[in-house]
Design a protein that fits this description.
It contains 5 helices and 8 strands, in the order βαβαβαβαβαβββ. The chain has about 200 residues and is α/β, with parallel strands linked by helices.
């Protein structure tokens, strides 16, 4: 099997958000709704799959809030589930820097898990924190995993795009975005996106 240089096209429009911070999760949910993306809304399935990844006070309602106490283990388990379950068509993985989860450890785990499934679906990472987090973002982009330090970037007419190739140190292997595409889920394919005015 030849490794893909960029993510596979989504086979559906159901998106899963994983976060360790409620605020960034809520904001991302709002932005997804504005963009027309459909979040997985199946409470029993989400509870069954993701409850083991978090403390008892975490939330299995999409966005999946594994909480700041989950650390690397929580991210590893939830990322593995999201990437290996066919029910999930695209993944937005959010991280807020904490003392219990080293951002570079998170980044390396994401890269390893994504490589293991041969980039089988769109995966976009947003990480918020200090210098260690910026280094983790750079690592992911160097390995062609679309990653950035904000939830979204705005484009003309307030259209929302997930960030792609045209960022400093960003991925170089992504195909160009077809501007005529109208389906919001196409924005999660890791395509090249112009982020200027």
């Amino acid at each position: 099997m030849v490794a893909r240089p960029f993510p596979a096209e989504p086979v559906g429009d159901e998106v899963l958000i994983i976060t360790n911070g409620g605020g960034i999760g809520v904001r991302t949910t709002d932005e997804c709704e504005q963009m027309g993306l459909k979040l997985i809304d199946d409470a029993p399935w989400l509870e069954e799959q993701f409850r083991p990844t978090m403390p008892g006070f975490g939330s299995t309602k999409n966005p999946i809030d594994i909480t700041g106490q989950s650390g690397l283990r929580g991210y590893h388990l939830s990322t593995h589930i999201a990437l290996t379950q066919d029910r999930v068509n695209a993944v937005l993985l959010l991280y807020c820097e904490t003392l219990v989860a080293n951002p570079m450890d998170i980044a390396k785990m994401i890269h390893e898990e994504y490589t293991a499934v041969n980039r089988n679906k769109p995966l976009v990472v947003a990480m918020v924190g200090g210098s260690r987090t910026r280094e983790a973002i750079a690592y992911l982009n160097e390995h062609s995993v679309p990653s950035f330090d904000a939830v979204v970037k705005r484009y003309r007419r307030s259209r929302l795009f997930i960030i792609g190739r045209n960022i400093p140190g960003g991925p170089k292997a992504f195909p160009p975005l077809n501007r005529s595409q109208g389906k919001p889920s196409r924005l999660l394919t890791g395509s090249r996106v112009k982020t200027g005015p």
